[in-house]
């Protein structure tokens, strides 16, 4: 039996009927067509599905959709600034070569955003810890960490 | 060389904006109208006869549109040796064998239907060790070859044998001689994007495959053969590639699931998508093949290598992918890493009931180099020569011809060794060794100027320019994240005198883009780069011919820079590029401004003796590491990691460093943590908790060093770099562990358990 889920996605209120067993990732991708969040494992182990739920980075593939009731969710699609410019994290990922195949990128950026929102000047160790749940097979992480460091230095 | 405007700059990847905004569409994101979801039923045994398949309950499940078993499909043989059928009819030979498949209206129903299919098996004796599989009484995995000829053993009918000089003479001339045995196991490519495809037929029975292949034009051939097997003669496949979530060699073969999607789409007349789960990706996507390597090597009193003798057994698994040809690339380091006059190499691939394996980044080179560079340290020690000094004595040099007949053009190996030595403070640290700390290094050679694996090593490219000076480059190159498109745009921009943002790349559609042999062998920057140079020159000549009369100047005196056509002898005489271009069309009897070129490099296929100049140029590199070993736990910490690479010229240092960083971490995982664990043929760790990929917390402090000896064959002097970085990691780390605590681990990965056990053995505790 479907239930009504009310929450906010990228600042816009959303109301839709969901099956209780649906995960947040399914709702975002299949119902709302926000396909920036990726499924890399479906078990909360790779971080490709990371979104921000009430300020915290979560693996949306293992977060029941109904847990988002009343919550604010931010996906990678919500990072564009109102004038269409990229956020400084997104720009830093581009400028520092932090993107290769790109499959982990949206999740990686959102984990980094959740960190910087809470801790605007993290140490390298804090960045590494915040990204520990986001696997990347292409980059070896170095340029990703450089990008997050750069974004943490820049003023808006 | 004239000053370069765009080549050599740290330009961001041209697809990065799409990827940081979530706009890039991967196979996961692709939907087609009326699309069904396919799901595969796998074997429950490593080796068994199929007695009966009862699919009746699955067929009755609402939402199921098709159920296929081996008995419902025409004879169709796929794979490098044509020893695979998409659905198995009589017998399964590995746990991942596909026995049935379902297409349903949603993935949940498809999964439920697969569970409802009942298969009765009669288990057969199985063999999981390639050496056991070679024994006369071993169960036969294939009773016949693809043509129906009875098989006598599990040995594949591929013979890999390279003989250069006289190894026996080399042994006799050796003052020092060492022999040892090394082993490498399965590892998974672990692309973050799982495998998947969508197969769709049009009303004329032509097939569109949305595919993440690294070899679209070879895949087109394979899929057309499948169409013929379906009775659809003269029908064609068009391959359209979405963004690809990682490759690393996992997409150099066409895979069983793709053929199953075609069969389901043909049966249902609807688009069918198959998308793996991560468990399937670990279990049913062929991993890098394991190797058992016996190696002997000798040197004279001065430390000059006298011979290298290698014998290798590869676990093919139950079927044969292109990975069975990795010995051809293993020959590269075996014959040509360092100057070694006498070489003997033999390798055999053996069927077992393990999951079948394939190639992965480096194409056999990491396994071979692990053995070669480990034994080189052992030999240096036997000869009483410092390992760095030993390698400098034997380092390859520019202009040499190696025993396998490779014609070395540029060679920066000595500089790579020197750089690693300096940066690690090698002599000082070696002299003042600290407890449990050690230094180690290993070098590499890899093909750097394409590789003639097939009869063609070619790449087709079309370039056109519009009325506004905007350039479209149509290429057959596949970008799997490495940045080929960006480098092509840089070269095109450099040629045509326009900024890279004026270049648009059109790719990923065999119906539009010209032929390319594939993204393998670290070849795209070199091959597609050379293609871009050639086609850019042709297009530029057309533009200058057009501009000549307009500027009343001999076209030979004209050039283009900053979107301006100008006379080199008098730059005041100039005209904006777009104005020139419009005249091509807005004139009576105008012309199309477009050019094409098929670049096929002057390299050679290996001959029957496996000799020949396989690549136009060769990439070299040296990795040096400092480690600390915790003698209580066996854990290895990497304190320094210097990755020096001879790349010819860095076309884009930022993307190049990305290849080095990523490959170094992949190589470190291969060395220390990664292992697909098989127990009697069954994958035991099909998830990221149990398969240990390195994370951001596992700090590998990679310091890239770019050595640029400018290669005469490469575009602006460049050589390939995609694979090399992961080649020397494992032996460099193994050598450093030996230096640190005096134990040599000879089978990968070097886990804390193995280090600890070796330390205990050394202390005489066990």
Any chance you could write out the topology, listing elements then pairs?
The complex is a heterodimer of chains A (156) and B (766).
Chain A: E1 3-9, E2 12-18, H1 24-31, E3 50-53, E4 56-59, E5 72-74, H2 88-95, H3 105-118, H4 124-130, H5 142-153
Parallel strand pairs in A: 1-5
Antiparallel strand pairs in A: 1-2, 3-4, 3-5
Chain B: H1 16-20, E1 36-42, E2 48-54, H2 56-60, E3 64-69, E4 91-92, E5 98-104, H3 107-116, E6 118-123, H4 130-133, E7 160-164, H5 167-172, E8 176-184, E9 196-201, E10 207-211, H6 216-229, E11 237-240, H7 256-268, E12 272-275, H8 278-284, E13 291-299, E14 305-317, H9 326-336, E15 342-351, H10 365-383, H11 387-394, H12 413-423, H13 426-431, E16 437-447, E17 459-465, E18 471-475, H14 484-496, E19 503-506, H15 524-551, E20 558-561, E21 564-567, E22 574-576, H16 577-585, E23 594-599, E24 618-629, E25 636-646, H17 653-672, E26 678-679, E27 682-683, E28 702-707, H18 729-741, H19 752-762
Parallel strand pairs in B: 1-12, 10-11, 14-15, 18-19, 25-28
Antiparallel strand pairs in B: 1-5, 2-4, 2-6, 3-5, 7-15, 8-13, 9-10, 9-12, 13-14, 16-24, 17-18, 17-23, 20-21, 21-22, 24-25, 26-27
Helix pairs in contact in B: 9-10, 10-18, 14-15, 15-16, 17-18
Task: List descriptors.
heterodimer; A: 156 residues; alpha+beta; Ubiquitin-like (UB roll); DNA polymerase, domain 1; 2 domains; 5-stranded mixed β-sheet; 5 helices; 5 strands; globular; B: 766 residues; Aldehyde Oxidoreductase, domain 4; Aldehyde Oxidoreductase, domain 3; 3 domains; 7-stranded mixed β-sheet; 19 helices
